[in-house]
Amino acid sequence: MPRDPLDLLQGTLDVLILKTLTWGPKHGYAVAQWLRETTSDEFSVEDGALYTALHRMEHRRWLAAEWGVNEENRRVKLYTLTADGRKELRARTALWSRYVSAVQRVLGPA
Amino acid sequence: MTPADRLRRLVRLPARAHTIRADVDAEIAFHLEATERELVARGMPAVDAAREARRRFGNVEEVRHMLGLLGQTEASAQRWGQWWKGVVHDMARSTRTLRREPSFVAVVAITLALGMGANATMFRVVDRLLLRPAPHVRDDGSLSLLYFQRETTEFGRVTSSSQSYPAFDRLRDTRGAFADVAGWWATDASLGAGADARRVHINFVTPNFLPLLGVSAYRGRFFTAEEWEVQPVPTAVVTHAFAERELGGAAAAIGTVLPIEGTTYTVIGVSPPGFVGAVMRESEIFLPMATGVGGSIGKEWRSNLNVRWLRIVARRAHGVSSAQAGAAASMALQHFGRWNKKSDSLATVIAGSIIPARAPDGAPQGRIALWLGAVSILLLLVACANVANLLLARTLRRRREIAVHLALGVSGGRVTRALIAETLMLGVIAGTLALGVALWSDALLRKTLLRNVAWDSGQVDLRLSLFVAALVVVVSVIAGLVPAIVAARTPVMDALKSGIRDGGSRRTGIRYALIIVQGTLSVVLLVGAGLFVHSFSRARSLDLGFAPDGLIFVQPQLGGIANSAQDFDQRMERIEARLRSLPGVLGVTQSVTTPFESQWDKGIMVSGDQLLPPLKGGGPYVNAVSNDYFTVMGSPVLKGRAFTNGDANGSPRVAVVTETMARVLWPGKNALGECFRIEKEAGCVSVVGIAKDQRINAISDVPPAQFYQPLRQWNPDMRVLFVRARSTDASMQAALRRAMLLETPTAPYVDVRPMTQIVGDQLRAWQLGAAMFGLFGVLGLAVAAVGLYSVIAHDVAQRSHEIGVRMALGARREDVVGLVMRGGLRQAAAGLVLGLAISWAVSTRVADLLFETSPREPLIYMGVALLLLFVAVVASLVPARRAARVDPVEVLRDAG
Q1: Which residues have C-beta within 8 Å of that of residue B111, sequence separation ≥ 6?
Q2: Interface touch A75/B60, C-beta < 8 Å
Q3: For the segment A3-30, what is each residue's pLDDT rounded down to a tens digit?
Q4: Total domain count for chain B?
Q5: What is the reported pLDDT for B747?
Q6: Ramachandran class of B466: left when φ > 0, alpha when ψ lies in -120 to 50, beta otherwise
Q7: pLDDT at residue B505 above 50?
Q8: B359 falls within a domain
Q9: Residues B147 and B296 both lie in one domain
Q10: pLDDT of residue B345
Q11: Which of A3, B384, B627, B825 is the most buried (most CB within 10 A)?
């Protein structure tokens, strides 16, 4: 039975994008596709919100952006992870683990 | 990547706005297209796919707008970053370049610092005197100082700031004009008694004075409405400075007791630091009017219509303009004058500015300050012209370096910016020095122009710093712009070619123009200096009619020491004798009035005539003196005799008149033996002697008609003493003071002053004008001389090749010297002619500040001309002689 997609908790989108880009430079559409496939469509993310997050993180120098050309010779904007971005990803991942394990301790084994 | 992207990546330029928008649009368009294609591949019809793609995106327009904003923020941050880096780079480069030329930096910095420092100082003065009310006075536009103007036949329009108390009371009731009216009287009084007594500056005020000015108590409280009447416990408010100095601080001051002129006051409050009253006069203590004024003005001070002593400040009613308030008050005052038959109350009331220096018929300090401000601006312009010249010379020296930069592709704009950065750096150094100059001259001003003015502490405050910063920018632009533009326009090929030695005739034209400007300004300043110095020397060498050197003025405090007139005379004689017995004293005399300080006039009638001819300068003035007055004062009796012991109480009444009085009242006749009547007195007074004229009103006023009566025949209880002594120094004054205290042990402070000090106070305005103009004139001349020297020296260096050729072709040393000097003198002459012409035209506007000096005095102009020519000769001589020592062989060999 298809479940209703979950809304993303605040701040999660950033860390998801950062992790996605560890797999290599991608343009915005590719990031959206990857997220959809990897989470099996669990989350509903407006594409607009995704692009806003990408630009915001570029502004904060966690991502570097470059205009390039894809296989069909279309102009696309490719995002790459910077060193600062990797640091941020590590920090946020650690934070997420702590969060999850704390919640899990309260909820107990299912 | 497209070529455009490749280039942008290479150069990393910040993107323009339309590029940002285009990029955002492209990114969003790609996403929507890709989504569409995916949906179509899954079987959705194309139209639905497009709609679904947009739906999944969210609010496309909003996202596009947000991304655009983000992009622009990014781009502008980048632009700022680049600009800032450019500036830092320029600054670093300037520092490196300037460090290699320390003497150049020193000359420029000092020149500019002098000009800027002078301006900063005058700014403080003008700001304090003319732009702001007295410290802590809360000026919301409704405060007015009141002035009273009358038209008189002798003196024309007279403006005064004092009124009688009844008139003040009447003005308080003026409906519709004023919300509140307060009065004050500034005077000096004695604090303590006997040997510990000292003089303090006090203000007797109405109880609403302090609240009306908007001042709140720093500690304690101010007067309440009860203090309109005499209180059983008299209260006082002290200034913060007084509390700190004398009472151990503001907190400790409350409750202390001050004995002033016989009354004991309790301190109830301290005013905020810096507050001195409504006008900028040194003040230490505020006392309620009801308590203390009676002693000086008389017991009837509340109803006395004849004495005008009170100054008035008012808060106008809401919505009432100064003109309206003035008109309403004038009507009230004139009604009052007619009702009380006081014709001299028929004055126009002017609700003037709360800024004291802006009084109608202006106070001289304000006008002098403005003139000095204008002068310091001139000086600054001279300094800027000089520095511009130096910078231009330097630019020309570095033509080759600049040409290389331009050839390598640096834009003219960048070159200009770099040079302006250097000039700014010089300006900043000069500005820092200028602050130091301003602080130093602040101390100087306090002793001269602002002697009796309450001046803030000499610290650098925000307004001054902002002013100096603004000056730095303005000066850097003025001085640096022309050289910077010239540098940017350096013709590249010409400069890179070797063998070119000339300075560039067009450039030289600008430099010569600058020299002429400097010369002109210096001449104007020097002419001003000459006029004021002449005024001052004329004022100093005036024949005062008495001999102030070696004369000391003594004002005894005699209130209450004698019970009857006879007792009083005896005590005065004893005092005279005691002072005469002191070592070093050559003579002592009593007098009623003092030149420049007090005058007493009486109406007289000459036998036969009921009317006196109009007397210029007022009068006739009267003085009652002891027998040896004329010898002690140095105003000898020229014809007839002085007073003797025979002129006593019952003897025929006699008088000694001054030359002017004799000439005016008995023209063509011998005044000796003539007779006149004093108003309200019976009998005739005969003239037994004619004495030298005395200047008694102001030093610039013509000596008026005056007559003397012997003290035995008229003895008012107003008395001063004059002592002629071998020396007038501090020890003599102390000896006199001690002797006085022996005679009157309970007396408050005794005023002992050398007469030269009193005369000096009269001369102060001209002394100041002479000193300041002289200083500025010399500075201006020095700056112009340095400028002329540097231009000629530079020319000589540039033309060394040409000079070598000339000498090789047979010119002698003298010819070369002559050649160079003629050039220098020509420029100086041009500046001289212009400067003299401008001075000639403008000098009439200072005519009323001068004394016995025509603003077009030819000797002064000639003197300035000679001085400038002399300086020009000296400034040209050194480089000229250096030119003559050029070795033609060396120079010609160097032609490569």
Answers
A1: B383, B386, B387, B430, B783, B786
A2: no
A3: 566 666 667 888 999 999 999 999 999 9
A4: 4
A5: 67
A6: alpha
A7: no
A8: no
A9: yes
A10: 62
A11: B384
CB B516 within 8 A of CB B428: no
Tell me the C-alpha to C-alpha distance, in Å, between residue B405 and each of B328, B408, B488. 74, 5, 10
Residues B184, B245 within the same domain = yes
- In the predicted model, what is the mean pLDDT of chain B? 83
Taking contacts as CB-CB distances below 8 angstroms, the residues of chain B near A46 are 56-58
The CB-side HSE value for B612 (13 A sphere, CA atoms) comes to: 21
Residue located via tokens 């300004």: B521
C-alpha distances in Å from residue B201, one per residue of B186, B190, B300, B880: 7, 9, 23, 62
Instruction: Count CB-CB contacts under 10 A for residue B100.
Output: 8
Residues B620 and B657 in one domain: yes
- B56/A47 CB distance under 8 A: yes
pLDDT band at B503 (very low <50, low <70, confident <90, very high): very low
- Shared domain for B201 and B282, answered yes or no, is yes
pLDDT of B531 higher than 80: yes
Domain stops at, among B313, B330, B354: B354
Record the tokens describing residue B711, joined without a space. Answer: 């003290």
The answer to whether B552 and B736 are in contact (CB under 8 A) is yes
Please report whether residue B117 resides in a domain: no
Are residues B609 and B717 located together in one domain of the fold? yes
- pLDDT of residue A80 exceeding 90, the answer is yes
User: B63: which chain A residues are within 8 Å (Cβ-Cβ)?
Assistant: 48, 51-52
Residue B655 and residue B778 share a domain: no
Q: Could you tell me the two tokens for B552?
A: 């000391």
Clarify whether residues B778 and B825 are in a common domain: yes
**Do you find a cis peptide bond into B3, omega within 30 degrees of 0?**
no
Reference B390, options B733, B786, B776, B759; nearest CA is: B786
B199 inside domain: yes
What are B285's strand-pairing partners? B202, B238
Whole-number Å distance between alpha carbons of B165 and B799: 80
**Structural domain that includes position B149:** 143-354
> The tokens of B379 are what?
């000086």
CA distance A9 to B87: 45
Q: Give φ, ψ of B686 to 5 degrees.
A: -100, 150
Nearest to B27 among A28, A32, A56 (CB): A28
Q: How far apart are CA B443 and CA B504, in angstroms?
A: 47
Amino acid at A37: E
In this structure, are B731 and B832 located in the same domain?
no
- Model's pTM, two decimal places? 0.63
Asked if B233 and B266 touch (Cβ cutoff 8 Å), the reply is yes
pLDDT in tens, B306-352: 778 889 999 998 888 888 888 989 888 888 888 887 666 677 888 88
Whose tokens are 């000009």? That residue is B115
Q: Is B190 helix (H, G, I), strand (E, B) or coil?
A: strand
Evaluate if residue B624 carries a pLDDT over 80. yes
Nearest to B390, CA basis, from B93, B98, B779 = B98
- B120 is a domain residue: no
Here the tokens at position B718 are: 């107003």
Q: Do B23 and A56 touch (CB under 8 A)?
A: no
* Beta carbons of A55 and B67 less than 8 Å apart: yes
| Of the residues B320, B354, B388, the one at which a domain ends | B354
φ/ψ of B795, rounded to 5, equals -55, -45
Burial of residue B250, with CB atoms counted within 10 A of its CB: 0-12 exposed, 13-18 middle, 19 or more buried: buried
Q: Are B395 and B64 in contact (CB under 8 A)?
A: no
Domains of chain A: 12-107 (1.10.10.10)
Instruction: Give the closest-approach CA distance of B47 to chain A in angstroms.
Output: 19
Instruction: Say how many residues make up chain A.
Output: 110
Sheet holding A63-69, edge to edge: A26-27, A75-81, A63-69
Q: What is the largest CA-CA distance in chain A?
A: 53
Q: Do A48 and B27 touch (CB under 8 A)?
A: no
Highest mean pLDDT among B351-355, B414-418, B581-585: B581-585
